[in-house]
Task: inverse folding
């Protein structure tokens, strides 16, 4: 079976306005390391935008979205998680010459640079030391930008998962990106979103993937009969759920799949909850913004 990293779209997009709220049980707190927390900012809050076309959105709604291009060609996405750092998939960086990669924040349309757009280059890259190119296990990486960005009414950071043992099965989550709008279609010029359900481990195991390719560091989201999915070019981008404070938090990184929206082949995502200690180790003293009302 061919494993497709999705760094080259969304298929069958339609907007779903109601996202599931995740109810947290404080007694289920996982004792783990977490990145330092800032006290002068909040994460996971964007501005609702109404755009003709339904499935289109803007960076004002997801102000932590980052597009990645090399030699002028868009190929991956990421999420701003501190003033200096971007979270993405390891396979978006493995083997690439980082000097040729351009990072753009606060820009929805790839065909023209908006007045709000912030352009950065890469200072350094940290790819998970156990990233495996065979099955994309540990498909996670951190980019340190050459200069920090200011957090304001336009640019905000993504929220990391709550530090709790949460079962997200059945929750409706949102994927955002500029990837292909179909398996055999070009990448999108405009930022788009699609809602997909998070599948149980049993449903994931019953899908068409070989079992030795799925690990505990991954989860499935999508429809077993196809319909909607992330696609090539969405790699590294975020999968969001709505948190207990009304904010959006990133619980998954778009990683891989077979084709796009193929029946019995849901999308595979890196399980971010498993990497909070790793993020702490590699963000150094840099802090992350907390959700609103959580201070």
Result:
């Amino acid at each position: 079976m061919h494993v497709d990293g999705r760094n080259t779209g969304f298929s069958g997009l339609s907007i779903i306005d109601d996202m599931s709220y995740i109810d947290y049980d404080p007694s289920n707190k996982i004792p783990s390391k977490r990145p330092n927390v800032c006290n002068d900012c909040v994460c996971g809050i964007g501005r609702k935008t109404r755009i003709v076309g339904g499935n289109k959105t803007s960076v004002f709604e997801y102000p932590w979205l980052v597009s990645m291009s090399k030699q002028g060609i868009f190929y991956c996405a990421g999420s701003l998680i501190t003033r200096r750092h971007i979270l993405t998939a390891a396979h978006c960086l493995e083997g690439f010459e980082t000097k040729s990669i351009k990072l753009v924040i606060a820009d929805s349309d790839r065909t023209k640079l908006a007045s709000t757009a912030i352009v950065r280059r890469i200072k350094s890259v940290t790819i998970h030391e156990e990233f495996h190119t065979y099955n994309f296990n540990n498909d996670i990486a951190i980019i340190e930008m050459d200069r920090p960005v200011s957090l304001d009414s336009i640019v905000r950071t993504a929220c990391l998962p709550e530090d709790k043992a949460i079962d997200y099965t059945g929750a409706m989550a949102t994927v955002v990106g500029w990837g292909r709008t179909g398996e055999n279609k070009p990448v999108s010029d405009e930022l788009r979103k699609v809602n997909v359900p998070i599948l149980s481990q049993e449903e994931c195991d019953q899908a068409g993937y070989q079992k030795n390719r799925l690990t505990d560091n991954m989860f499935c989201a999508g429809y077993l009969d196809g319909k909607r999915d992330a696609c090539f070019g969405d790699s590294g981008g975020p999968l969001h759920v709505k948190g207990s404070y009304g904010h959006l938090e990133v619980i998954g990184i778009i990683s891989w799949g077979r084709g796009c929206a193929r029946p019995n082949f849901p999308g595979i995502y890196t399980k971010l909850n498993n990497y909070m200690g790793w993020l702490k180790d590699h963000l150094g003293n840099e802090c992350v913004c907390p959700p609103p009302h959580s201070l």
